[in-house]
User: Fold this.
Amino acid sequence: MDKKKVAVPLVCHGHSRPVVDLFYSPTTPDGFFLISASKDSSPMLRNGETGDWIGTFEGHKGAVWSSCLDTNALRAASASADFTAKVWDALTGDELHSFEHKHIVRACAFSEDTHLLLTGGLEKILRIYDLNRPDAPPREVDKSPGSVRTLAWLHSDQTILGSCTDMGGVRLWDVRSGKIVQTLETKSSVTSAEVSQDGRYITTADGSTVKFWDANHFGLVKSYNMSCTVESASLEPKYGNKFIAGGEDMWVHVFDFHTGQEIACNKGHHGPVHCVRFSPGGESYASGSEDGTIRIWQTGPLTNDESEGAANGTVAGKVNVGAAEEVSRKIEGFHISGDEGKTKEKDEAAGKE
Assistant:
């Protein structure tokens, strides 16, 4: 790729404080969707292809550290500094459940079959809520040795993966026994852990290294040193031949998976990059920053004709009119008021960290 060619991202405004987590839904009959968590306490749902705002989930009274969508993008979940995890209807924006915790909730994840919600945070307790019986007390597995930073499911919901804020390593719990069965050793705290779409790799970012682990045998496959501290990394889901990383230098770097060589470097954010994620088809990737914006970047070299289109939110050959109509149906059902650009003052609790 010609390094002199400047990538033109789609810039998504709307959050009034730093964006700390991004999550893409799988591709659904309605297209794919992007949800963002921010310290402004209001997660936002967007069309994953165009970045267009669909709605804002309003109800948290503190910073939201994590947000996710279920497999069908019909429900959203969020983990907050207000000591709750909430589940939302992603079509209407209604709050469906609010699960009380005794401390800040840092991470949440829907099981692949969509029936369970996993939460964790400063209590060091991993809770599994049965969404078919939301009033029932949650199941708890063995305690995390440290404050929980990231959580994910793997092996068709048979294994839980978690990392800590205050110590290195990624721990794997066997869901059936509730016990920690494996630890992937890292020097620094793992700030980002992602299970690849095909279930083959676990991608982790810890300090200034990005590592790829075999998700079935848990051996270290590759480890690359970065030029600065990186907070997040994501593996391209379709071909698995490149990965992205973002961190304190404010840039979004693209690397060759097999060699670790930098292929491209995207500049544009005005603060450290807290989260990066590839879209489910690998045609674009998103970055969220301390500057409060999300930027969606097209993958690979664009021709001049296409880069003009990219600035306007379309790329030649990638616009699905049917999907756009489906998304407009989704937007019509979303009754949350307020426009995208609002930056109204939030409860003081939004600053709780």
